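A reminder from the course coordinator: this example appears on the midterm review sheet, so study it carefully.

Given structure:
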């Protein structure tokens, strides 16, 4: 097939690369000319394992073309996949301005029947508005469908080639058949439904992941109060096949481009349909409280005074991990940024290291943060080490070497990835979450 992907952001670029690798001819449109130029040269604007390799391969085979022109791509395509961002407004609702703009421009350039499939995460109930907008400009037949994505940053290529499920929300057999044909090379259960159900599947799935994370953090809080070990508790809970252990891990809270935004938008959508989603509000509240709790752990560990703004003055602290999760350089809603910002406000000096997110962090964090070349440089002369992101590299740290460079061997593990017994034997003061 010949398809157009609108948006060369995270979802759009991964989608374009994967479908070109599956043998389709793919045009990928983005309004950012600098990004288009970068991609035309075979360079990905963000880090994702295997992405740049597949990008370069399919450009060289002329199966993947990047452009800022709708006219050069849409008329040649049987399917248009809309993958533009839907960022949150101040009130939590999704901002659909990019979506409506993309649909409008697509409609202007249709030359024959085209299926417009929305992969962007959008609230329930906007399909009629999109269709009405398209009808104002389209001179050819078109049809809308919903085909949400379920990619995990850091494993998006693997998720694309081996999905758990493919959700197709379409009202006609023709649209269903077209999307089933497009996804034919891929594994995963096919879920065929209406557009509104497809949109709700996406929101409900992300909400459930957020629920599991916040539940784990609530249990961790109770474990700290009772003297229990959250890792043992959640291992026992997760051993139940009806529950499972995935996402049932405590830490410094969830971040990234999806969960915070989609939980807010789901609450706002429910409100528009006269449902007060107090349950998700509680999930959100627990998550937002994790940063404050973690900073309080640091204060306590350093025997700090409780006076706001003074208790960490002059303290050197190492931060290991900046991206919101491993195998990505994404810092959107990353807990690390919130933690570092708070520590700087109360006088701490920060030395930070991340395997992939350093360049992005330098654009976001103040110049007073010292960015280092490895964990050992970050830990030099510090009073405490914070583990924020559970990169595999950090699991291989030589703690005997690390202990020689620190001023004080205090390690606060925000992801519970280290062996607390081993570290205590080495002379570290170890503090985890719920342990």
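Designed residues:
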């Amino acid at each position: 097939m010949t398809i157009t992907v609108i948006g060369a952001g995270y979802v759009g670029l991964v989608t374009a690369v994967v479908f070109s690798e599956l043998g389709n001819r793919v045009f990928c449109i983005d309004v950012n000319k600098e990004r288009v130029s970068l991609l035309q040269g075979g360079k990905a604007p963000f880090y994702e394992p295997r992405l740049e390799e597949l990008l370069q391969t399919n450009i060289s085979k002329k199966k993947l073309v990047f452009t800022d022109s709708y006219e050069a791509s849409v008329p040649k395509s049987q399917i248009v996949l809309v993958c533009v961002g839907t960022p949150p407004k101040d009130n939590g609702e999704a901002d659909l301005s990019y979506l409506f703009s993309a649909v409008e421009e697509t409609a202007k350039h249709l030359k024959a029947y085209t299926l417009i499939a929305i992969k962007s995460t959008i609230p329930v109930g906007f399909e009629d508005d999109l269709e009405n907008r398209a009808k104002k400009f389209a001179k050819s037949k078109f049809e809308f469908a919903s085909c949400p994505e379920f990619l995990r940053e850091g494993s998006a290529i693997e998720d694309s080639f081996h999905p758990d499920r493919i959700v197709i929300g379409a009202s006609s057999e023709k649209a269903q058949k077209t999307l089933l044909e497009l996804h034919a090379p891929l594994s995963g259960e096919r879920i065929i439904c209406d557009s509104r159900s497809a949109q709700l599947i996406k929101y409900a799935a992300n909400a459930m992941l957020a629920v599991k994370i916040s539940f784990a953090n609530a249990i961790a809080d109770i474990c700290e109060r009772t003297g229990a070990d959250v890792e043992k508790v959640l291992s026992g809970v997760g051993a139940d096949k009806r529950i499972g252990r995935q996402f049932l891990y405590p830490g410094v809270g969830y971040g990234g481009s999806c969960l915070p935004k989609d939980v807010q938008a789901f609450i706002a959508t429910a409100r528009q349909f006269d449902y007060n989603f107090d349950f998700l509000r509680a999930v959100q509240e627990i998550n937002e409280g994790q940063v404050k709790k973690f900073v309080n752990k640091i204060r306590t560990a350093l025997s700090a005074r409780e006076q706001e703004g003074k208790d960490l003055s002059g303290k050197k602290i190492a931060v290991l991990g900046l991206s919101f999760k491993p195998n990505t350089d994404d810092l959107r809603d990353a807990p690390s940024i919130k933690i570092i910002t708070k520590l700087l406000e109360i006088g701490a000096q920060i030395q930070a290291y991340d395997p992939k997110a350093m360049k992005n962090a330098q654009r976001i964090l103040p110049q007073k943060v010292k960015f280092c070349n490895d964990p050992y440089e970050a830990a030099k002369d510090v009073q405490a080490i914070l583990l924020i992101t559970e990169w595999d590299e950090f699991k291989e740290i030589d703690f005997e070497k690390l202990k020689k460079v620190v001023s004080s061997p205090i390690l606060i593990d925000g992801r519970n990835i280290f062996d607390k017994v081993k570290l205590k034997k080495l002379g570290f003061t170890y503090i985890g979450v719920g342990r």
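Residues 196 and 222 are 38 Å apart (CA to CA). Residues 195-435 form a domain with the Rossmann fold fold (CATH 3.40.50.720).
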